[in-house]
């Protein structure tokens, strides 16, 4: 005989009345023992009550797996009270990871064919919640029949179940295509909303369905026009907006159908203009419809005037008092700035004002958009605004703001002096937050501007005298003082106020940098090198410099100690060569963008040279011309006699000249995975200096409508190979061709064995968890031979 147990209401009261967690566990353990005993005795009358209590215990986070089989028994029961609790337990306790979920397939199939609406509703809800791919394939015909049932209650649940089936098994698209066309004629709100959702899922996952439903665009346009003009029903209106949920779903479907399709886009242009101009924006429901309209206009092939209207709507969103609406507007404008730059530029003052938002996410998005709006015509005005923001922005935004200003100045600088002033202002304001290459870029810029050497060294000297805490600024200033210290002492710069500086002040400032506890080892290296270079620039005695150098011969930092020892040796043993060794750096004439262009041109030339092989004679003569440069020959140097074209002569020259081997042929890329717009491509590089090493770059892209989140790529290789995986560039791949994720694999293959990879991909896409395990054994032969 089973000991009497508590009723569900009494159990809830006793658990809530427990004063400590230990008391709660004691109550639950005691009651779970009663429930187990009841299950063992097989009491059919009170089984559903015991399972209801167990489900409440499960909701509190305690284990309840022993009730899984009882769910199956209740589902197979003929009583509705048993089925109701059984299906609820199946939804809570069963999922695809448990094989027991397959045992209820027959029960669900029988309940769907019974014709009892409440039972059919329970079965459909359970199937749409925890139905696996195998269950969806087995039960798809039954769900298809229910889509055309006369009862709206059953049809609505059948449509939602079909949506789940399409997400689980996209191959079932052909099963649900015919019923959808008939369901579009329904007037029932729930059925029509579910049908639009089902068609959206079909179009996203099946190109055939996309082509099929483009024929119903006029019907969708008519449904939306009716909603906008006459309304659907007053019970579904929100804040004066007629059924905003249905409007949003139709607009999303139109966006998918009109993308890259001229005829469909032309059909919906007038309607979109009507929705954009007639929707009330005083309430949030109207803003939601209007924002979805803007996204649809931007994704389809809409008219130019309609796109300008969409950008203006987003501009009005920026003036809204709701922070969420302003954030959505900034994010959307950031996506449009590349395609509709001139239209977005009209709202530049409003965007700049958003920089002062107290909300961190808003100010960050406004900063990204402001940087994207910078061009050659507004660079001066925008840099003033951004520099003012840099002085007062939160610390977590300072690095992004400083890097963005430096990149924009490098790309759109009107003059070199303006460029130098901008970088100096950034280094002075947020020097510790700039990128690592900022020092090298500025020294390269100053070195290439010969007419600004005196101006730059004076500006940097003044900045260094005021503050030595900004390490990048100190490094650039030390480099510049070391290179152009003679110009600093001359004091003949007309562009700034005259400043009289003597040698002792310059040396004292550099010594201060060396002795400061804020100076990094790299900064001390810059300062020590600057002192050494000043030994050839200054006219006075070098004893003070020699004393400083000798002090750092015993420095604990190995790099600084080595540098000091070398400089001291230069003083003692090679003093006659010191002036020549410490000459000024040669002028650098090119800046960042020009260097990029030249790199592209040289790459194109290299590809052309690979396609069209050059004759042997000019190559050899050019190589000999390069060798002549080592002898200090002038431009009038005699050219060598032409090479002997005979094979024997060519062999002699090949043996005599250190010709570089031709570069290896590029290894073709390989696409190894594609599913619902998510692709994974592999590119290969074998360094010439280490042929046993293979570098594989895995690039994940996403062309679908939904973001890919929590992306993880794991790899394994045979035991004869060694694999090292570096950290990926991120874990989220934005939708519609956003920034891809890259990850580097380093494979050491000393035996040149065929390379095989086993990859496991896990990610979330369209609110579904995806895991794929597959083997890649078709790598190009060039990657391992």
Automatic annotation (TrEMBL):
Any matching Pfam family: Alpha_adaptinC2
This protein's UniProt keywords: Cytoplasmic vesicle, Golgi apparatus, Membrane, Protein transport, Transport
InterPro entries in alphabetical order: Adaptor_Complx_Large_Subunit (IPR050840), AP1_complex_gsu (IPR017107), ARM-like (IPR011989), ARM-type_fold (IPR016024), Clathrin/coatomer_adapt-like_N (IPR002553), Clathrin_a/b/g-adaptin_app_Ig (IPR008152), Clathrin_app_Ig-like_sf (IPR013041), GAE_dom (IPR008153)
PANTHER family in alphabetical order: ADAPTIN, ALPHA/GAMMA/EPSILON
Membrane topology of the entry: Peripheral membrane protein
Subcellular location as annotated: Cytoplasmic vesicle membrane; Endomembrane system; Golgi apparatus
GO biological process: intracellular protein transport; vesicle-mediated transport
Protein name, as recorded: AP-1 complex subunit gamma
Cellular component terms per the entry's GO annotation: AP-1 adaptor complex
Chain ranges of the GAE domain: 665-780
Keyword Protein transport: yes
Domain of life assignment: Eukaryota
Segments of this protein annotated with the region Disordered: 592-617
Family as reported in the entry's similarity comment: Belongs to the adaptor complexes large subunit family.
Gene3D superfamilies, sorted: 2.60.40.1230, Leucine-rich Repeat Variant
Entry keyword annotation includes Membrane: yes
